[in-house]
Amino acid sequence: MADTAFEVHAASVRLGAREVLSSVSLALPAGQLCALLGPNGAGKTTLLRLLAGLLSPAAGDVRLFGEPVHGMTGAERARRIAYVPQHVPAGLPLTVAEFVMLGRIPHLGPFSRPKPADRAAVGEVLEQCELQAMADKRLDALSGGERQRAAIARALAQQAPVLLLDEPTNHLDLRQQYRLQRLLQRLAAAGHTIVEVLHDLTLAANHASCLALMDGGQLVACGSAVSVLDAPRLSRVYGWPLAVGCGEAGWQLASAAASNY
Ligand SMILES: Nc1ncnc2c1ncn2[C@@H]1O[C@H](COP(=O)(O)OP(=O)(O)OP(=O)(O)O)[C@@H](O)[C@H]1O
């Protein structure tokens, strides 16, 4: 059995007056690509932020390799967990290379300047994200997809063993969506633990080895694609008739609604 990276035990989260995660328990395997699925408002971002230590549970706990995430200092978390938020910050007066270099902060000593190893790490992730030609361009002069790739590159530059990404394929064209999934699979094969929120069920089914399906602030199912992608269950969760197929071309999930549905 794969080692467990994240262990979430009966975790609840309150935001304002609402309980938006209710007693969620799950174990996410180390060294694998996991996808969090579910309809709008299901609690995916909330769970991801809980894993990242950006939210505290009102009840229950979250452990990363046995250590409570909330007991870690910000610096300890930054060395272990890189996080790509759903919305890329706008209006930062930085070039792409300067922005991606921010990912190296956990590796720099106080008041120290980037070393050749930091510049090499930034160069490598700019190449992985096909951003070399835009290194000197300002962030606010990028397209939505280019800015998304810069945010992913910043997180990759952090070289943390755990990578959490909230809807990273937002704004990405098809090629970039597939390239990113392949890159995440390679990182997982090299030992990284990766959790991404995805809305594209077909993309998730064909690339992630562990799927967690959420609805209404609760975990509905967690495991392999075969165990999670049950058409009646998905149709109930999404409130829409869905067909699930798996053949030579991989998984295919599509609407099964009649034209007058
Ligand atoms: N600051 C907040 N205060 C109160 N409720 C909130 C707050 N932020 C989010 N929520 C609510 O928490 C629930 C879960 O939100 P969350 O962002 O985790 O959902 P999600 O599954 O990521 O949705 P989406 O697919 O739309 O991004 C939603 O019903 C949302 O309205």
Secondary-structure blueprint:
Layout: E1 4-15, E2 18-29, E3 33-37, H1 44-51, E4 59-64, E5 67-68, H2 74-80, E6 81-84, H3 96-101, H4 116-128, H5 144-157, E7 162-166, H6 174-189, E8 193-197, H7 201-207, E9 210-215, E10 218-223, H8 225-228, H9 231-238, E11 242-247, E12 250-255
Parallel strand pairs: 3-8, 3-9, 6-7, 7-8
Antiparallel strand pairs: 1-2, 1-4, 4-5, 9-10, 11-12
The structure holds adenosine-5'-triphosphate.
Characterise the protein shown here.
The protein is of the alpha/beta class. It has one domain: 3-Layer(aba) Sandwich (Rossmann fold). 32% of the residues lie in helices and 29% in strands. The chain has nine helices and twelve strands. A hairpin with a 2-residue loop joins strand 11 and strand 12 (250-255). Helix 4 crosses helix 5 (144-157). The protein is globular, with a radius of gyration of 19 Å. It binds adenosine-5'-triphosphate. Adenosine-5'-triphosphate binds next to strand 2 and helix 1.
